[in-house]
Amino acid sequence: MKLKLPSWGLLVILLAAGVLIQLAIQLEVINAYWALVLTYMCIAVLSSLGLGIIYGFSGQFSLGHAAFMGLGAYTAALITRYAGVAPWSFAVALVGGMLLAGGVAWLVGLPILRLRSDYLGIATLGFGIIVRVLFENSDKLIPATAGARGMTGIEQPQFVFLWAFLLLLGAVLVARNLRFSSPGRALLSIREDETAANLMGIDVVRYKTIAFVLGCSFAGLAGGLYAHTFLFLHPSNFDFIKSFDPLLIVVLGGLGSITGTIVAGTAWVAVLEGLRLVLPSNILEWRYVIYPVLLIAMMLTRPQGLFGTSEAGVLVPKEETPPAPALETEVTADGAHP
Asked: Could you give the CA distance from residue 216 to residue 72 in angstroms, rounded to a whole number?
């Protein structure tokens, strides 16, 4: 997969925007609460991009995404607990969480990725429940995790928003390049018709494994950022119910649409925080009523999601831009004429 970048001007603008927001946070122009919300927006979109690769690109219905986020979170938190949160050690912690989540995804994927549709969803749901139980009893093996009591003592690195923003930007570039590459087209063909893709010679299991491992690695990376943003980890943070957050974002934005995932993820966090401010404090308890109602409404009114499979122009490589339609010609005895 050849790396394709959007215009350098756009990248410079985005980088400058991230730096300016971080500067505003440091100068307390943006208070701590909104800094937390902005950072969580990046984390939510990053995690949802991972599920977008798994479900949106390759059509693998997964309900265990939060478990991989938890694996990344606990791994990164344990590394920085002993190595500190200097830039190099924090980077190592994030990479460690991402690699562990990806490695576990590969091991888990060996048997379950041969399943299809609802069966795959049930298998990943079961995996998520198992991981939750392991987190609750992890203190017997690793006391620092504190098991069901929740892990505390996590330090926050400097410029955590900027870390989250830059990693999200990198994840968007990776997802974009995958989407418009040959492997990406193979994944989309698997999503549309797995049997037909197999008959065309596409190694279905191999490509599904690539998508699953990459998507879960994104979740692990998001988990590492989550741990060092909220500074407290509890097994309930990564319950299988939490897997519905990225699922809802991916479905709302449009399966396979990176643009839709970014917009829906940002809007979803903003709406939840807005409701928290204007409604009673127990509003979040109603999210599990809101989720199914919203999903049903979306399926009835716009099943393809807000963006369908469309992408913003800046995310489409130039060579992918549809060519202008050719002039129709009329063949006569004197030759071809437009």
From this structure: 9
